[in-house]
Every structure is written in C-alpha cells, then in structure tokens.
Amino acid sequence: MAFAAIGTRVLARYTTLLKGLHNVEMTTDRWLRNILPIGALFSGSLVFSNMAYLTLSVSFIQMLKAFTPVAVLLISFAFGLKKLSTTLTAIVVMISVGVCMASYGESEFNMSGFTYQVLAIAFESTRLVMVQVLLQGLKMDPLVSLYYFSPVCAALNMLILPFAEGFAPFRALAQLGPVILLSNAGVAFGLNIASVFLIGAASSLTLTLAGVLKDILLILGSMFLLGSSVTGLQFIGYAIALGGLVLFKTHKG
C-alpha cells in the first residue's frame, strides 16, 4: 500500500492517468466521512486475507472468494441498493451451495484460516458497498480511488503491525531482499493500471469476467506449481459456484 501511495502520486505528477483527480473536490469532512472508513475496511480486508494464506491453500481461498459477490449482494440489500428478486435469490443459492460443497470437500480444512478468509470477504464486501454508497457522485476510477485509499490503508497497517506481529516482519525484509519485495509491489500496482486500461478499451463487465479466468488459473497454478490437493467434490462445488458467478456478473437488474 505504501508503494501504491507513492506510485499514484508519481503518476499524478508525471502522467495523465489520474486526470480524474481534477473532478474530485476532496474536503476534510468528506475525507473523514468517506475516505477514512473505506480505507479502514480496505486495511481489514488485506490483513485478514493475508492471515488466511498462512493456513489455507491458494486453491481453497480462491474458491471461497467466489462467495464475495453474494456477500456484496446481501449487504446491498441491507443498504437498500438492490431489490430482492427470484433470479438473484436463485443465483445466491447456487453460489452458496457451490462454495459450501467446495468447503466440505477441502482435505486440509483449517477453521482459523477459514474464519480469517470469511472476515476478509466481509470487510471487502462492505468496502465495495460503501464505495458505491458514499462515493457515487465523485466519479472515481480505480487509480483515483487507490490514490486516496492507499495512504490510509498503509498507515493503519503500520499501526497494527507492531501489536499483531511485532518487528519480525521488518527483520525478515533482509532475508526476503528488496528485489522480491519491490517486484511483488510493482506487479500489484501494475494490475491496477492495467484494469483502468482494460475498462477504457472494453468494459467493466469484461474486467469482471476476466477475473473468473484469473481465479481458474490461480487454482490450476496452485495445484501444479504448489502441490495443492483439490478433491472431486471441490471441483464440482467450484464449478457450480463458478456458473452462478458468471450468471451474477452478466445478470441485468
């Protein structure tokens, strides 16, 4: 997040990729009401998501993430942004059943890791809904949003780190090396830039459907490169959830 905060400011200074900043009038009150709570939710999502990776396989985490649209939809119902319909209810049930089957079929199930990932999904889903509720009139694209949210998220993570993990992560940086750290941060930042170009060249729907392919590749990569085991029941469950996910992202209404 610190890398993203610096990167977006460099892009704002030397490129036109963040020209949308001129359309946003950021006041102290708006920052406190909108940016700070959403940045805090962003931080919680990252923290719990990373904790889940310590005990769960990459493949299982990606299967659980298929439930994120359902969580977003349920929170949207609570905020009054969506109206319940028979079609949406059927899609929610379809994805839920698929994720439940994938979870039941997990051979190395870990309750703490599962809890962390569920909390990460809850934080991320709430953040996405709050972005829609609080920032509807600001017309922020992904990079402009990252410009405002990343410093808040980075600052909160730095405040939490000494109490959660102590100073061990800082000592581990010497073993990790700057090349791996910076390349990882650079890839994550490049993903945000690529998403802006993809939305501009195609549509947001294309971006979300490309995310489905990304999840499939991550699961296959986890199996063949990391040796993660995926059971037959998980394949069936994830296929059902995936079908529901595609229906959800192409559903109008």
From TrEMBL:
It is found in: Membrane. InterPro entries: Sugar_P_trans_dom, TPT_transporter. It comes from the Eukaryota. Residues 17-248 form the Sugar phosphate transporter domain. It is a multi-pass membrane protein. Keywords: Membrane, Transmembrane, Transmembrane helix. GO terms for cellular component: membrane. The chain crosses the membrane at residues 35-56, 63-81, 87-104, 147-167, 179-204, 216-248. This is Sugar phosphate transporter domain-containing protein. It comes from Malassezia psittaci.
